[in-house]
Write the structure tokens for this entry.
Amino acid sequence: MRAEVTVQGAGVMGLALGWVCAARGARVRVIDPRGPGAGASGGLVGALAPHAPERWDEAKAFQRDALLAAGTFWEGVRAAGGVDPGWARTGRLLPLPDRHAVAIAEARAKAAEDLWAGAAVWRLEAAPDGWGPVSASGLVVRETLSGRVAPRRAVAALAAAIRERGGEIVPDGPEEGPIVEATGWEGLAARGWGGAVRGQAALLRLAGRETAPQIHGPGLYVVPHADGTVAVGSTSEPGETGPATDDRLEALIARAQALVPALAGAPVIERWAGARPRAATGRLVMGQAADGRYVLNGGFRTGFGLAPLAAAVMADLILDGRDGIPATFRLPETR
């Protein structure tokens, strides 16, 4: 008899878990009254980027492993459901404003040789002409572990893959088998484990940069996508949840254009605002709660990046009873 799993929430975490469980032979029902990607996972940016290779801990190791697993994961999703998630490992460029920043970057480059085990590089080079950031030192970091997805296409790809394996994505329905809460900021708030941090982002039309690296500055991501658009994000507004954009987004767009001159004159074709789930710990929370339900939540800015590995680890726990959850990600009540 096939195992049954019910997932509450059709954001990237809930859908990724639903897909992994369905791929392992489980009968999956994903329940979300608003439909797939209605919350933070329906945004624009889709940057999958690692933390700096320094002060290493199990959370950074987990993120590295998740990013290394991303290609196989998203290609499997595409092959199963026939929908392209917009995945590519494009890397990123980081401007270095002064000698102090250069010295830090050089130390991180040495650390990356060991911590990234040759799977990706963190190296210094001259700031490129054309597509590149303004860098006062004339140098940038080129890092090759980062990837990107197109969030809405990735959500659609996961939904298609789940359905292809016989799973359901419905607005309501019976909850059968283990129940997993992947319910975003509302779910965190209901359990007293966190809440919302609103973000605003924009999508610009700029063809010819489809495979270019991402460019990241302080609090700012510039992410080219395969459809001739470039996403710019995001603001960080704790406690806010409203869907309307405001002057903070316009200021972010202006900062992006100052950092990346190639964006000057590119038309803005969409503005977006949404509330992202941030746990009080500042990290993903996952595991089985005291009431018997499972929780996978709190991805905040790292949801798409962590989803491939987080879904696999949760599926191990739910389907096979194998608990490989890192201590740093365990639920607050089980630490």
Observations:
- The first helix runs from residue 12 to 23.
